Amino acid sequence: MTGSRSAPENNGDTLATALRLWRTRLAPDTTGLPTAPGSTRRTSGLRREELALLAGVSVDYIVRLEQGRATSPSAQILTALARALRLSEAEHHHLFLLAGQPPPAHDRIEARLTPGLRRLLDQMSGTPIGVYDATWTLITWNPLYAALVGDPAALSARERNILWRHFTGLPDRISHTPEQTARFEAATVADLRAATARYPADPTLRSLITDLRRLSPRFADLWASHIVGTHSADTKTVHHPTLGPLTLDCDLLTAPDSDLRLVLLTAAPHTEAAAKLAQLATAPITAHSAPPPTGQAHCSPPGAPAGGEPTAFAVQAGPNP
């Protein structure tokens, strides 16, 4: 039996289609190119020769790209095309993927909070929440988080980094079993290695890794092993100076389109920990709310600091810090 089935579109065809669409949507008067007074255009958007001029490539090469005959442009050409076509960051990323190139890495780790994320922190005042960046540095928190694990307001960015506190033995209110500690170390070291792939030129990240390898034999061994770990649901025991121990669930939310992680500490209903957390929430809180983030930021591990964004968050199992 015979039949017809259309062949799937290859990457060259997909790249060609995307480039044509992006070129035709771009108004010439937004590019700074001169236009003759009273001239009429038979095509919408940029002409191929105009795109070639803006990107610094030949018209023939633009033609071949849009016809699917040139399928492997270099990263340099892709960057020039993205700039000429005024692509958004997401489109820039997509362009590289269509061309079979690794997307460009960011130079610096960002720690920008959107209004939505700030509202979330304000509205969930009864839940301790800390926000961390790609290096697991605490960048902002709500007052209840600070009241529970200790006020991090006076700490430096390095002192608010979970891996730094854990592997250098700084004091902490959170305790873990040996099994929890092993899971935490595997997951956070793996996270840090992943961050180096996304931000290879970030000086703070590079400095953190260099110092940890120098000062912590345990970290150096884990780093050299290329260990891979994942975050799993877990509990944390927080030793509060006046309320005593609280056993809490630790959950991790990931903000979309960013590396920010929200760590939430909650108590099971009708438990002693829930009563203590409610007592802490209604007591006068003298801990400082977090200042606006100026640098970097998992559920607190041994050594975690005592311590808006779109409203849709990806829920992960609570990390094992």
Beginning-to-end CA distance, first to last residue: 60 Å
Overall strand count: 7
| Percent strand | 5-15%
Helix content: 25-40%
**Integer average pLDDT:** 82
Q: What is the CATH architecture annotation of the largest domain?
A: 2-Layer Sandwich
Low-confidence stretches: 1-9, 291-315
Overall number of domains: 2
Concise synopsis of the structure shown:
Residues 45-92 form the HTH cro/C1-type domain. The protein is α+β, with helices and mostly antiparallel strands and 321 residues long.
Task: Give me the secondary-structure topology.
Elements: H1 11-25, H2 48-55, H3 59-66, H4 75-84, H5 89-98, H6 115-123, E1 129-132, E2 138-141, H7 143-149, H8 162-168, E3 174-175, H9 178-198, H10 203-215, H11 217-225, E4 234-240, E5 244-254, E6 261-266, H12 272-282, E7 314-316
Antiparallel strand pairs: 1-2, 1-6, 3-4, 4-5, 5-6, 5-7
Helix pairs in contact: 2-3, 4-5, 10-11
InterPro entries: Cro/C1-type_HTH (IPR001387), Lambda_DNA-bd_dom_sf (IPR010982), MLTR_LBD (IPR041413)
Organism: Streptomyces inhibens
Protein name: XRE family transcriptional regulator
List keywords for this structure.
Beta-Lactamase, disordered N terminus, elongated, alpha+beta, 321 residues, 434 Repressor (Amino-terminal Domain)
Describe what this molecule looks like in 3D.
With 321 residues, this protein is of the alpha+beta class. It has two domains: 11-33 and 43-98, 434 Repressor (Amino-terminal Domain); 115-316, Beta-Lactamase. It has twelve helices and seven strands. Strands 1, 2, 3, 4, 5, 6 and 7 form a seven-stranded antiparallel β-sheet that branches. A hairpin with a 5-residue loop joins strand 1 (129-132) and strand 2 (138-141). The longest helix has 21 residues, at 178-198. The protein starts with 10 loop residues before the first helix and ends in a 5-residue tail after the last strand. The model is unreliable at 1-9 and 291-315 (pLDDT under 50). Residues 288-321 are annotated as: Disordered.
